Amino acid sequence: MPPPLLQGPIHTLLKPLLLLFLLTLPPTTTSHTSSTTTHPPPYTYLSQWQPARATYYAASDPRDTVGGACGYGDLVKAGYGMATVALSESMFERGQICGACFQIKCVDDLRWCIPGTDTIVSVTNFCAPNYGFPSDAGGKCNIPNKHFVLPIESFEKIAIWKAANMPIQYRRIKCRREGGIRFTISGSGIFLSVLISNVAGAGDVTSVRIKGSRTGWLDMGRNWGQNWHVNANLQNQALSFEVTSSDKMTVLSYTVAPKDWRFGQTFEGKQFET
Asked: Where is the Expansin-like CBD domain (predicted)?
């Protein structure tokens, strides 16, 4: 029988060297075709869960997805699709909250809630109060009610449609958008109106300034929703914008529109980080 290997003093010396060698070897790869599943990062929450109620509407006509008190026009073309919501008067803040994002889930009704579900919606419209009814008997959007009116496509993600008027919980979250902030210019003569849409981060807009290539920065006023206006002759000038949201973050977009811009055109600027 041959003598055993690595016996005696030599074994004692080589053992730690062999262990060190093995530890420095690269890990063994068994396959080069394995894939990993990536998940989007979690949303950033801007508020705690709060109670409210929600109803829905069914858009029987394609024109029902156009318009709204925020002024976004065609919601599909504006990037919001059907993931939208109209808020009651106590939440709408006279349009300042337009563009903000909420996470909503159904609660307290095991008959109609779909367990473990939620939906993300953007504010695009206003649910007008009806003071012909008490706030607890028909006046669902009256002060002080906190009420969400959802398209049925969003409502059915969290509850069965038969639920009608459902107790929910909501919390505000940071918005995620594709591309940059959009500036749609309209008006006539020295009256210039700019619709600001596709805003990420807080999603809303609290102040706007505009600058022509031959002017300083000019404050714009909120006309309605997220339509902002200024009285100034800015034609034949490249336009820059400063947009501030409710979380005090500001984005500067220089020379967004070239000097040959025209009314009716839309331009894309920088975006808030999320």
From this structure: 190-269
Do residues 242 and 270 lie in contact, with contact meaning Cβ atoms separated by under 8 Å? no
Q: Which fold has domain 50-173?
A: Barwin-like endoglucanases (2.40.40)
Contact 169, 157 (CB under 8 A): no
- Indicate if the pLDDT at residue 209 is higher than 90: yes
Measured in residues, the chain has a length of: 274
Give, rounded to a whole angstrom, the gap between the first and last alpha carbons of the chain.
72
Domain ranges of the chain: 50-173, 182-268
Q: What is the dihedral of CA 259, 263, 269, 273, to 10 degrees?
A: 150
Please provide the DSSP assignment of 157-174 as one string. TTB-GGG-SEEEEEEEE-
Q: Give the mean model confidence (pLDDT) for residues 168-182.
A: 96
Extract the tokens encoding 236. Answer: 């034949």
* CATH topology identical between 50-173 and 182-268: no
Q: How far is CA 221 from CA 2, 228, 246, in A?
A: 96, 5, 16
Task: Name 175's bridge partners.
Answer: 201
**Alpha carbons 175 and 184: distance in angstroms, whole number:** 20
- Fill in the amino acid letter for 268: E
Fold of the domain spanning 182-268: Immunoglobulin-like (2.60.40)
Maximal C-alpha separation, the chain:
106
pLDDT tens-place string over residues 23-43: 444 444 333 333 344 445 677
